[in-house]
Amino acid sequence: MREGARADTDEMDNDRGAGLDRAHALAVQWLDSLAARPVPPRLTSEEMAGRLERVLPAGPTNIAAVVDELAAACDPGLTAMPGGRFFGFVIGGTHPAALAVDWLVSAWDQNTGLRVLTPAHSAVEDLTEAWLLDLLGLPPGGAVGFVTGGTMANFTCLAAARDEVLRRHGWDVATQGLADSPGVRVLVGAERHDTIDLALRYLGLGSPEAVAADDQGRIEPAALAAALEAGDGRPTTVCLQAGNVHSGAFDPFAPCIAAAHDAGAWVHVDGAFGLFAAASPARRHLVAGFEDADSWATDAHKTLNVPYDCGLAIVRDRAALRAAMGMHGDYLIHDVAGEPLDKVPEISRRGRAFPVWAVLRALGRNGVADLVDGFCAHARAFADGIAAIDGAEVLNDVDFTQVCASFGGDDHTRGVVEAMLADGTAWTTGSRWRGRAVLRVSVSNWSTTDEDVAVSLDALRRAAAR
Q1: How far is the C-alpha of 11 from the C-alpha of 406, rounded, in Å?
Q2: CA atoms of 151 and 289, how far apart (whole Å)
Q3: For this UniProt entry, which residues form the secretion signal (predicted)?
Q4: CA separation (Å) from 385 to 340, 392, 403, 444, 459?
Q5: Rounded to whole angstroms, what are the CA distances from 347 to 151, 308, 312, 337?
Q6: Is 432 helix (H, G, I), strand (E, B) or coil?
Q7: 334, 328 in Cβ contact below 8 A?
């Protein structure tokens, strides 16, 4: 190597090392600040816009300086989502084992679509797939695709469902498309999550048919059976739910799945945060019978607390998933064991299985159960604390990790939501459920403590008193 080139390389290595050291120091500083800092950001996106240089510089900038500039500029615009007092959405935190391994994921920089190209990740993905199926009590021969999140997990599973139910009626979507096909009838509960509708829109299936739900958002088996009977044998998919976004309720899986299968329908379970009830012996009854479905979607970046982004698309029939998602190119090196890219919409993707493996390995079976049970215990404590506030009412059966509350009239409830954000102690989100304004508490962070719940309830009492 020429002397000048060696000097340039040495300088870049030193610059890289200094930048990584600075990033590590700032990351630790951020994590250490979470317990004390207000949960909401201090500035809006409009206010943040002026904190960064607007003109792209002509020349290079030292990496450590770039890291410092970004961290200093962004700090007031960051929400303390990884902390123990963020209850606004089912966000999850980042378990330390997953965070540490996720740093390695970025450093290793593996494009994990092909088995021959990335044998380390493929082996870890195979093992993690087996662990997840075993932990959740799902069919051991099923396939797990590591996607970006719950939306794409639903999309992936419903793509397999669409193609398979049409294939049973003699229609090959891969070669014939959807035009002039028999179409797919999709039945959903009246309180399904909006990402089901979004995934169906992406798939060209249009709006689903809503089936009546009870006062907790659970689909009514008799109404579903009646809707299935009215289907006249058309290609049909039924979407059930493990964890209503407001109540946390679970659909009655056993009778619904039996009725759907009798009608020749594919059954998909959207379990973005609720699927992991299966990992807890104390909560397993909530998903009784769900293992008989055909596909399941969930988020690892919710209950398992791995960093964003990581969802899990689980399909009983590996061939059906591969038929919907797989691709072949002459330039690709194919392995007879099948490719990771055959299970997901992306060809290029980061090593998402690594941090999932890390959390499962660090916690073990009992640790995952304790994690789920801890979320439920904190939700129960929130419900009991809110019920003791004058004028407050808990509106849902708190069976899992969600709490929905009213503080009197809609205007007062919305005022409590606004006062909580202004207080900054905790983040709780407003919503509308069953015709009423509500404050919603979602518990999904490994680091939430009894003290976090207590100080958050104190803030709620102050907000309600105003």
Answers
A1: 60
A2: 23
A3: none
A4: 46, 10, 11, 18, 11
A5: 18, 18, 16, 17
A6: strand
A7: yes
| First vs last C-alpha separation in the chain | 72
Task: Read off the tokens for 354.
Answer: 């690594």
C-alpha–C-alpha distance, residues 101 and 98, integer Å: 5
**pLDDT tier for residue 42 given thresholds of 50, 70 and 90:** very high
Chain centre to alpha carbon of residue 129? 17
Amino acid at 49: A
Structure tokens at 154: 């639903």
Q: How far apart are CA 255 and CA 272, in angstroms?
A: 21
Run of H or E residues at 3:
helix 3-33
The whole-angstrom separation of Cα 131 and Cα 340 is 17
**CATH superfamily of this structure's domain 367-465:** Aspartate Aminotransferase, domain 1 (3.90.1150.10)
Question: What's the pLDDT tens digit per position in 90-135?
Answer: 999 999 999 999 999 999 999 999 999 999 999 999 999 999 999 9
Asked if residue 11 has pLDDT above 80, the reply is no
